[in-house]
Design a protein that fits this description.
single chain; alpha+beta; 2 domains; 5-stranded antiparallel sheet; 3-stranded antiparallel sheet; 12 helices; about 50% helix; about 15% strand; globular
């Protein structure tokens, strides 16, 4: 049986496939949408036909729908279907949790969404405090009714093991919707580069190298290996670092961004979402000066949650998949920000990882615990990615031989 890709990789093709069938829905009939992309936090659409509003005139907008809210709403509907006798191939432990769930265990969805919306607004207030106005896109978030096709509903629930309990018809769920100013063409034009990183944990890195990579960036006094650090970054970020060695203007702009990231995180306890591509973009403006823009940087508090999870590390407790993912996000962010700060010759650093008792934790112990839990929760995904990488390398080798 073939292994499933993470939903963040599967949703784009399904969103494109199902969008036409949703256009006649009551919620969407006043606007025409075009699928733009999908990431860990949002599914993104561009508004092609603006609503008849004076405020909308002359402004190109995109709509970002929170994936987390959609999954939570769909999960509640799936449990109801399970209780009504719908068949499922969900693992027995998942079925047991659904069987034993009590109505009082479910927080009122409207209340929960209001809390999540408040968290997002607090995050954006902190961003406004630390980052200049010309680096931020105008945005407004609210709770809205979102129609989901059966195909997208199934894929969103697949990662929690209950995809076969998704609604069988287009279903309207409440979720956080953000209307945001669309980026200008120059921000994505020739010479612009994305700033971000990926999960080195998902590449099949061995434990020894993983400890070294984390230690050299996050442990004071450890030797820094630039070549090993750059090997863990996205190619676009490496390109920015290489250009900054010859372009003082770019180097100054990168320093400004990294310094603000450090101040933002140390003061607010939040982190920017820098995992993946095009969440932050560096570009040259009309005056040929380097700028950066925050396109999609909201992260649902993994930095603060990681502090809670750290208290488990080194003990006998196995982390939940959600906790493991939060640790991967926090470590990836810390490696990127501190590592780039080192590359640029900066003295500022993110505050070290501490547990809930404010005691600093051993990076070696943390690396070991996270590594073990990643192997437990993500072994299938890692195997799939390694197989895809080997297949790509074989194609590249064959092409090279033909050339």
């Amino acid at each position: 049986m073939s292994e499933r890709r993470p939903s963040s990789e599967r949703i784009p093709e399904l969103a494109k496939k199902s969008l036409d069938s949703l256009q006649g829905h009551e919620t969407l009939k006043k606007s025409k949408f075009e699928y733009v992309g999908s990431g860990g936090e949002h599914v993104v659409y561009r508004i092609l036909k603006k609503r008849e509003s004076a405020k909308a005139e002359g402004r190109n907008m995109v709509v970002k729908v929170s994936r987390r809210g959609m999954v939570e709403a769909l999960t509640r509907l799936a449990v109801e279907r399970f209780r009504e006798g719908a068949p499922t191939k969900a693992p027995e432990d998942v079925q047991a949790r659904m069987r034993n769930a009590k109505d009082e265990d479910w927080e009122d969805p409207e209340t929960k969404l209001e809390g999540a919306l408040n968290e997002e607004r607090m995050f954006l207030r902190a961003v406004r405090k630390h980052f200049p106005k010309d680096s931020r896109l105008a945005a407004r978030a609210m709770i809205g009714d979102i129609p989901l096709s059966p195909e997208v509903g199934e894929e969103l629930l697949a990662d929690v093991g209950i995809g076969d309990l998704a609604p069988t018809k287009t279903t309207e769920v409440k979720a956080i919707v953000r209307y945001q100013e669309e980026i200008s063409p120059e921000m994505m034009g020739e010479g612009s580069e994305s700033f971000g990183t990926g999960y080195i944990e998902m590449t099949g890195v061995n434990l020894a190298d993983y400890k070294v990579i984390n230690g050299m960036i996050l442990d004071e006094g450890s030797k820094f290996h630039p070549e090993m650090f750059r090997g863990a970054l996205h190619g676009a970020t490496v390109s920015l670092l290489e250009q900054s060695e010859k372009d003082e203007g770019l180097k100054t702009t990168m320093k400004d961004f990294v310094r603000r990231c450090i101040e933002f995180t140390n003061e607010s306890g939040e982190m920017l979402d820098l995992i993946g591509g095009h969440n932050v973009q560096f570009y040259k403006d009309a005056e040929d000066k380097w700028k950066y823009v925050l396109i999609d940087v909201y992260a649902s508090s993994p930095w603060r949650k990681a502090r809670e999870t750290i208290s488990k590390l080194g003990g006998n407790d196995k982390l939940e998949r959600r906790e493991t993912n939060e640790m991967m996000n926090a470590l990836s962010y810390a490696r990127l920000v501190n590592g780039v700060a080192m590359e640029l010759g900066m003295s500022e650093r993110l505050d070290p990882f501490v547990n809930q008792d404010d005691k600093r934790v051993s990076m070696e112990d943390m690396s070991y615990s996270v590594f073990v839990n990643i192997g437990y929760h993500y072994s299938d995904e890692i195997k799939q990615r390694r197989a895809e990488q080997r297949a790509k390398e074989e194609v590249d080798d064959q092409q090279t031989a033909l050339d």
